[in-house]
Amino acid sequence: MSAITRDEVAHLARLSRLALTDDELDHYATQLDAIIESVAKVAEVAAEDVPPSSHALPLTNVFRADEVRPCLTPEQALSGAPAVEDDRFRVPRILGEEA
Amino acid sequence: MTMLYDEALDRFEPVLGLETHVELGTKSKMFCGCKTAFGAPPNTQVCPTCLAFPGALPVANAMAIESTIRIGLALNCSIAEWCRFARKNYFYPDMPKNYQISQYDEPLCFDGYIDVEVNGETVRIEIERVHLEEDTGKSTHVGGATGRIHGADYSIVDYNRAGIPLVEIVTKPIPGTDRLAPEVAKAYVTELREIMRSLGVSDVRMEEGSLRCDVNVSLMPRGSSEWGTRTETKNVNSLRSVERAVRSEIERQAGVLAAGGKITQETRHFHEDSGTTTSGRSKEEAQDYRYFPEPDLVPIAPDPAWVAELKAALPELPSVRRKRLQAEWGLSDLDMQAMHNADAFDLVEATVAAGAPPADARKWWMGELARRANESGTSLAELPITPAQIARVTELVASGALNDKLAREVLEGVLAGEGTPDEVVEKRGLRIVNDEGELSAIIDKVLADNADAVEKVRSGKIAAAGALVGGVMRASKGKADAARARQLILDKLGVSE
């Protein structure tokens, strides 16, 4: 059963801004298939008395009070940035020319 | 290509939808303790959590949850008994995590409504949902011709705003507004802004971006019941722009449809200078955001008893208050509209509370003070005068110590920083001349100087007495009681009215 098509992998790659070759698309389609099959095994053990859950802990309402805590300095914040300009993170061009 | 508004409305019916974002005025961010001040130097209000450093985890701000529930209650929404945050995944540098923590199919508040007044008609706007998310960072696009993202060489990002709690309020589609669509959109956003103010949850400044509105518009041909394709216009940064953006998008879409074209579902940008919209990026489909429950935050389950307490403690909402004040003060719809536009309700209400009759309180704020605020380019609330001082002036007028002209001089003195109304009266010597002897002496002099007028009055032309009263007012520098002066003049000349 091949659930994931090459087109779906290509779409996912585009959303993630990853350039993949045709060989890579096939490669990842196979891998993603294996992952989905493994995850699908959970459905086999799910029973009527086991409600679906998204969180491992049976907790709700974990909040913090609205209190200000110390921030980083701009120097600290930007120290790991590949490029900086005017105390801002500099990032490559986001969109190309308008079509 | 665009069609004139009237012709567009002859041929098509608009359907509106409004998505409004409100930045909450919490002290700290949504998921970390960073400050939230507007206009701070770049990247001075950031920490490992809002910069998405590895291992940093979010914890939800209790005040933001409470404010969102209060907003939902004020908009007549149901409050979810249990709901979760969701990750909205997208590849864009305004969020350093590469996702935004938002809510997807489980909003905190849902199914509400508000009523707005447009041209004396009540229009009910249904609210689809109110959910809580985090605001994004601010990108500046460098290079290229326009300063816009298209064609820029690169961008620089400030994350001070990233992670500030943001409430999104989404209406259900609003059909049936017909020609009033632009006014309805504006009235809705205006009302939302007032509700937020009365709740004290946000400073709702459109010019600073703490209230932002996306306007959805679609058209369907008259007689059709099938809604057309909608566009979403962003960058609408003032109440007036909300109205203009709806109008402009109706005109543009009507032009496209009438020429046999198709509307593309897309994001459009509103331009303040031209009042028109241009195409932005085409929207990603909801499934492209790959929403899933946020694993780093546990679900929210508001205690119904707590929600009931919040509901009971809601302040009087603006529409209810306006109705109450109108009834109490006996004002016309027009008066109410003028006061609404001048943002005068708080001031007039406080002046009445300080003892002034409602009609007088309104007269001074909407007359003399509105004129002076207008002259100095400020709002009424910014004038250096208090409601209690206005109340004192109305009291002095009612007791006969001042007339309206003198009262205006007192206000001028108070505004000029000369002290309280009583101090200004004292310093400027503005009290009405109540001393009959003094008034009588002034009248005698005026009568002696105006033989012609005196003769006319004696011969029965009582209207000529007006000139004599005017002379007395001039001679007393406006401090005489005009009615009393008139009576004394007629008595002295031996005529009666």
UniProtKB/TrEMBL annotation, chain A:
Protein's UniProt keywords contain Nucleotide-binding: yes
Enzyme class: ligase
Pfam families given in the database record: GatC
Sorted UniProt keywords: ATP-binding, Ligase, Nucleotide-binding, Protein biosynthesis, Transferase
Catalysed reactions listed for this entry: L-glutamyl-tRNA(Gln) + L-glutamine + ATP + H2O = L-glutaminyl-tRNA(Gln) + L-glutamate + ADP + phosphate + H(+); L-aspartyl-tRNA(Asn) + L-glutamine + ATP + H2O = L-asparaginyl-tRNA(Asn) + L-glutamate + ADP + phosphate + 2 H(+)
Biological-process GO terms, alphabetical: glutaminyl-tRNAGln biosynthesis via transamidation; regulation of translational fidelity; translation
Any one GO MF annotation of this record: asparaginyl-tRNA synthase (glutamine-hydrolyzing) activity
Keyword ATP-binding in record: yes
Enzyme Commission designation: 6.3.5.-
Alphabetical list of InterPro entries matching this protein: Asp/Glu-ADT_sf_sub_c (IPR036113), GatC (IPR003837)
Annotated family: Belongs to the GatC family.
Purpose of the protein: Allows the formation of correctly charged Asn-tRNA(Asn) or Gln-tRNA(Gln) through the transamidation of misacylated Asp-tRNA(Asn) or Glu-tRNA(Gln) in organisms which lack either or both of asparaginyl-tRNA or glutaminyl-tRNA synthetases. The reaction takes place in the presence of glutamine and ATP through an activated phospho-Asp-tRNA(Asn) or phospho-Glu-tRNA(Gln).
Subunit-structure text: Heterotrimer of A, B and C subunits.
HAMAP family referenced in this protein's UniProt entry, alphabetically: GatC (MF_00122)
NCBIfam families reported for this sequence: gatC
Protein name: Aspartyl/glutamyl-tRNA(Asn/Gln) amidotransferase subunit C
Chain's gene name: gatC
